[in-house]
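Next up, sample data:
>
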Amino acid sequence: MIRLTKWLIVFLLIPLISLADDWRFSKEQEEVVVYERFRPITGFKEFRAEVVVNAKADQIVRLFQKLEKISQWHYQTHSVEVLELINMTQAYLHIVSKPPWPMQSRDLVAYVELQNDPPMNQIKIRLQSTNDEQVFNHRYIRLPKLEAEWSISKLSEGQSQISYQIYSEPGGDIPKWFFNSVAMDVPLYSLINLRQYFFKSEDINATELIQ
């Protein structure tokens, strides 16, 4: 069984902090706005995407809690397996991603935690790679680092804003310029999918979303 460690809990209870440049506008598509910044030490980019959706915060949370169905709307995610469900707000996951050619499929073990912040009227979902070797498959390249945070804020009775901040290092022999050029697609198309999901209805066919 995978166990929580003290350093991991402490890390995940604070906001994502990095030695990085200031955020700058990168792209806007289908009402999703994306910002980016460099992490000078690694040379990889970090991204933050924002969108307004026609859904209450608790509706969005319920969708996120369907952990093994995340691959239906999260861009380039092939599968999500729950390794350990600690409670309704904490879990360990095994995630397999399917990045664009010529990259080989990646995987990772991640700890995910949901936190409610009533003073800020926000719900945060944080995900952090653990580099756990208990789940290892030679078909995949292990993603050495992933930090992600979703912030869900109520705007009105039927609208919420979603902010998705993500930083990852791909592992393997991938040029940084190439990875930086495609990594933005993950938060961009994931939020486009979420906006479409809630705009149409919860009964939307997964084949209508961008994979």
